[in-house]
Amino acid sequence: MTQPTYQIDIQPIGRRIEMPAGTNLLDACQQSGIELVAVCGGAGVCATCRVRLASGTLSGVTQNETEDFSEAELAGGIRKACQAEILSDLLIEIPPESLSAPQRLSIEGREEEFKWVEGVVRAVEVEVGRASLEDLRPDTTRVIQAIQAQADPNKKHGRIYFDSEAAKQLAPALRNNEWKVRLAMRGDEVVAVLPQGTKIYGIASDVGTTKVAVYLIDLETGEIVAKGGAMNPQIGYGEDIIARIRYINDHEDGLKTLQTRIIDGLNALIEELSKEANIRQEQIVEAVIVGNTAMHHVLAGLPVHQLGDSPYMATVGESLDIKCRDLGLNLARGATLYLPPNVTGFVGADHVAMLIGASLPGTRKTIVALDIGTNTEISVYHNGHHFTTSCPSGPAFEGAHIDDGMRAAPGAIERVLIDGESVQLRTIGDVDPIGICGSGILDAIAQLLEAGLLEPRGAFKGQHSRLRGVGGKAEFVLAPASQSRTGRDVRVTRRDVNEIQLAKSAVRTGTECLMERAGITPADLDQFVVAGAFGTYLDVDSAVSIGMFPKAERSKFVQIGNAAGTGARRMLVSMEARKLADKITRDVEYVELAKHVGFTKIFARALMLE
Amino acid sequence: MTQPTYQIDIQPIGRRIEMPAGTNLLDACQQSGIELVAVCGGAGVCATCRVRLASGTLSGVTQNETEDFSEAELAGGIRKACQAEILSDLLIEIPPESLSAPQRLSIEGREEEFKWVEGVVRAVEVEVGRASLEDLRPDTTRVIQAIQAQADPNKKHGRIYFDSEAAKQLAPALRNNEWKVRLAMRGDEVVAVLPQGTKIYGIASDVGTTKVAVYLIDLETGEIVAKGGAMNPQIGYGEDIIARIRYINDHEDGLKTLQTRIIDGLNALIEELSKEANIRQEQIVEAVIVGNTAMHHVLAGLPVHQLGDSPYMATVGESLDIKCRDLGLNLARGATLYLPPNVTGFVGADHVAMLIGASLPGTRKTIVALDIGTNTEISVYHNGHHFTTSCPSGPAFEGAHIDDGMRAAPGAIERVLIDGESVQLRTIGDVDPIGICGSGILDAIAQLLEAGLLEPRGAFKGQHSRLRGVGGKAEFVLAPASQSRTGRDVRVTRRDVNEIQLAKSAVRTGTECLMERAGITPADLDQFVVAGAFGTYLDVDSAVSIGMFPKAERSKFVQIGNAAGTGARRMLVSMEARKLADKITRDVEYVELAKHVGFTKIFARALMLE
Lengths: 610, 610
Hints:
The structure is a homodimer. The first copy, chain A, is an alpha/beta fold. Chain A folds into four domains: 94 residues, Ubiquitin-like (UB roll) (Roll), CATH 3.10.20.30; 75 residues, Ubiquitin-like (UB roll) (Roll); 149 residues, Nucleotidyltransferase, domain 5 (2-Layer Sandwich), CATH 3.30.420; 250 residues, 2-Layer Sandwich (Nucleotidyltransferase, domain 5). Helix content of chain A is 29%, strand content 24%. In chain A, strands 12-11-10-13-15-14 form a six-stranded mixed β-sheet, sandwiched between helices. Chain A has a six-stranded mixed β-sheet with strand order 26-25-16-17-18-27, sandwiched between helices. The longest helix of chain A has 25 residues. Chain A is globular and about 95 Å long. At the A-B interface, α4, β7, α5 and β14 of A face α4, β7, α5 and β14 of B.
């Protein structure tokens, strides 16, 4: 009798492995090159290989697990990997502290010189007269009058007022600090009362479907004081947006659950950065979070049902100001979260932020700018007009739906060079290969094309010692079992090639349709801007080779990193940047691809690897 | 051996009774004329005589109490009065449902014709195009554009935006109502999304130290749809402001506790009125609450420590807008609470509201206006100037610190006529007398003066069948034991007279000092306005006789009822009224009595009953 084999999905690293029934879970991870911490070497003594069983069946909880974990933890599916055997298909979540090799997160955007004219939140120091029988003005009145006294007489001011939570801080702050305080003012609103000389900070964050980046910013200088990233904790509820919306539709508290997960995740990061910078969270008085429309809606607790069904509608377009306390974000009690505007259900605030981060709005140049992900948003600027669209490029560029695919984590093949019989690889972290990530598969296909081992339609051809099988079963071995950390071959399969064809065709089709709408050809381009994590690491030549990008001059291509994060930081400190965001959504023309004449023809042509 | 006697304070009716140890609590209440419901006649079978032991010792809980009350109730001190014997001094709270005779609450103000120009919250109906691939504008965008399309082109509009909670209601509302909705708009902010044709309402409330009045208002017509009142549930934590501030200073969660009590009390009244008017609480989109500075601060959760110590400072002067959800007030999720401005620690938003309710701001006439309570706030208008002050008049006018005193509840003597040997009484509810309330004691003293039985210094003199004792022990029997419901004499004692002298002297001194500051005499007065519950029921001639009010022409006196409630209703519906409130606090001159030249002399003179 053969042992049945089960599939184990490992989150958040996005690896799927197959293991015979009864395999120990820690062994399974280690055999697959997933570096779980296991300080005691699997003896069950420590709890460092802690994982969470999200679905499926493992062997029963052992005594040393009941000793180390609380009932709540056990009820939540927390297990020691070393104590559990695989008894079905599984979904396993690895908490960050159990992973010995950190994920690679793209949090660096291009840092350009950027000067803001009108800040969003400013610090104002005031000293007021003490309360006495001769001066019975309420605390707020004396403070407001002191602010007015130092205001620029040439600038128009509205009525100054206190946020109701900030007002609570005033009486003790005045009396404990010799009647001198520092106020954080958001326009005419006092949002925090702090001791004199205390610096004020803000949070800018890019919440992606997969990853979350957070920056702690000095609001008076605009400098990044600390930054950090983590996986989006919602990932356990679905890898992509559609799966998460389905989860929400199917569970009464689904929206609340996913909202809580991301808020908790952000709070953890904010706490971490505050500790690193040695500041109190009450000093953080403003936040900006950018994300795609679905991430935006879930974060704000807005309904997403209509986002999951055609015509995939955003319910909120305009920017939102939400008191952080309404969401449970742990900043100053009076702090505000600014959520920039969304264009449509598929072009969200993250794309708006990307355009601002790349300094594109208002350009007179002819520019294509795109942010490649599960969904790829594209903008074209020409003659002062701005067109945008979005296309479903799927998760292949993130290593999903690729037979030996994985996310851009240590052990992922990210560069491939095929030179005759020699196959050279570069992996993230320079370790033995475990699998292949998006930029690696792109490189591999470009190299296979160049080596004459692939046809434009996606079929393998020719002869190579690494090429085996035929037709739909053909595959090219990038790393043989002897060199891989998993002890198995890491391959590019015919199916992988087809996945990439579909994905790159979506991107190319969106770009072509927008360029047609704008009436331009690749020769007209001044710039072709590629943003985002995958866009940062991909090889532009490979992307052009396989026909994902149009054949423009190499010098026109610019890879700008996490421009959405840069845009978020600009909107954190600058009113001009926020006005720009409003202007983008007012002026942009959204092009619906399915309604573009010639769409089907363009798509079919774009499937070709050429 | 004589049985010891214990004092029992009965709240919220403000009665103090004395009973021998071991007396049954229901009997004690009934003997004292306090009409506790007791459906089963004290057999212990029903639970209608339910009371709460706030402090002191009663006999042990009986079996039929453990059967009828939950553990939580018992732990909270809930008892059946019929099952409990008095074993110490006690503080007993009677829940409203256990009182057979309702309290008299002053909730009617003078209803004048009042037209507002600019409403605070208005309803806007919009119908928008359905979402389709041809029209992918987000829900908010299509709604905002529809609002702009119907806006008055001659009026300046700001940027229209959604409250983040109101935004959550939009997607389902549009899709469930054929893309037609009714919006509640507060200026440029959409605060609620409702089905077409749904009416919108507001809440105006006057939160006094003792009583709470709530009005449910149709925001489109300004009409009162329902109204109700209750005792301020904070009363169990101290009868007056100073006692409650002490409670807060002495208890870590004291502020939160008292805040929660008043919010719960308001929520209960709001729920009651909503049921009565058959509306959903989501239709209530705006609230205004007025109260003295301490009530204001506790409601908003603002620190009160500095309010309890000289110089008794308000921390917040200016008006506050607070989202009702921040306080836990159960209205529409996007509803706002407007708290009008305070002048000082002793002249709060309730006085501002009273002035607005009496249409006084901006008057060119010479007017004295006052609201008599434990603290009495006084305003003087003359030549367009406005002076205000406050004086500590104590609780005597509310029947406290009076030997046979009680609040204005059924059984309280409220009018007295002494004609030779005949003593005629009128009680609230026309029942046999239990005690004497503020207006009754005022009348009694005025009548005793007129009958030549009192000297201006406050000593009894002369001969009367009802006058007995001498010197400090002298007393005048208003209702002999045979006629009273308690079976004891209801008397006016020498001590009572002294209490009233102190209280009326405070009011008179405040009035005199303000009039001196304004440079006017009683002859200059166009009007003498008396507001508030006690002010409504007192006899003006008696008040003038005993020297509480200056000797102005009788026709100048106006009693206007709960003008603070009227002012709150005006501020609920009118932006002009709110601007007026700001203007009052900007323009008024607060006169500190202790610093007024001649204060001591005026006070000594004002003690005389003349």
